[in-house]
Amino acid sequence: MSTQQALWLPGIGQDFAVGTKEIDAPGPGELLVKIISSGLNPLDWKIQENGFIQFVKSYPAVIGEEAAGNVEAVGEGVTDFKEGDRVFFQASLNMGSKFTTFQQYCIVIADSAAKIPDHTSFDQAASVQVGIIPFVVALYAQQPEGLAHLAPWLEGGNGKYAGQPILIMGGASTLGQYAIQLARLSGFSPIITTASFHNTELLSSLGATHVLDRKLSTTALKDAIAKITSIPIILAFDAISLPDTQQTAHDIVTAGGTVITVRVPQVDNKHEDKVVQQVVGSFHIPPNRELGKSFMPALTQWLADGTIKPNAIEVVPGGLNGVSSGLQRLKNNLVSGKKLVVRPWETA
Ligand SMILES: NC(=O)c1ccc[n+]([C@@H]2O[C@H](COP(=O)([O-])OP(=O)(O)OC[C@H]3O[C@@H](n4cnc5c(N)ncnc54)[C@H](OP(=O)(O)O)[C@@H]3O)[C@@H](O)[C@H]2O)c1
Fold first, then answer.
1. Which PANTHER family does the record cross-reference, listed alphabetically (predicted)?
2. Phi/psi of residue 324, each to 5°?
């Protein structure tokens, strides 16, 4: 049996350690992918610290949620991919360590993979899926997973929501940057976001019409928004979803409006006319699978023609041994406006 290097998490609250792991064969509808670049996400340190039973059911485990690489082998029934294709994907984290990305090879559900366009690097591609999928599900999935808006890659969807404002809390986060770009494609206007000032130019280039200081109080933010638009805000996407950002978004949307959170809703005195709804950004949930299948070719095309820009990335040195330090930086809010990736084949 062939083996590879993998980053093992021995148990909740324990340190990661590089070790060996078998290389699995792809089953029907699956791909075996050689991982060239693997993205780091806040969920990874949260799993390490606290465990998340819905994602990781037993230890030792290999985690990691997204990656890019080369197809090494295809399982029975796979027709859309062949050996040698460059692909990027969101891992099926809850299906176990065969499917996760802090290792040199993993198994991928073929329907959840997309081809990487020629001019997009593995490192860039590895940073896209976990960041973009939450807004896609939140806006374009059918209810109750999403708001059932017409997606911008479908006929009649591009620009459909012209003239409707949207508030995006935390535009410089990975999720926020993709939310801004998809909101632009859907036609939302104005697109108002909160961020540190040094990210203003970046977020404007992605489509934000107004970048407001993330440190403004709720009252000051409300006043600033009132000067931008007289149309009531009926939709907010909180890409940060700390208790204070959720509360602010909740207080700003008008009666009848919706706040999408990316973490568990924690809003005090919830106004009964306002919906606060958590999105689970995954195409692996059965009701979202068709949406994922229809989105993947559009994502490849949008990256190829520059419609969607990947986040700036930083390659953390040391291969899989770099994951721990990278996650510490994410945890301590030391990463601004970019995404960290590691290259598993650079593991010493
Ligand atoms: N529900 C889901 O499916 C799902 C999926 C993926 C991630 N998540 C969660 O989504 C959250 C964001 O993940 P991510 O990968 O996008 O994070 P990230 O890229 O690491 O976020 C870092 C950015 O957050 C911004 N930020 C931090 N606090 C802020 C605040 N109070 N107001 C405005 N901006 C703030 C900072 O912006 P500045 O640099 O401008 O200060 C920084 O650039 C995490 O909690 C993650 O666990 C949920």
1. HYPOTHETICAL OXIDOREDUCTASE (EUROFUNG), ZINC-TYPE ALCOHOL DEHYDROGENASE-LIKE PROTEIN C2E1P3.01
2. -60, -50
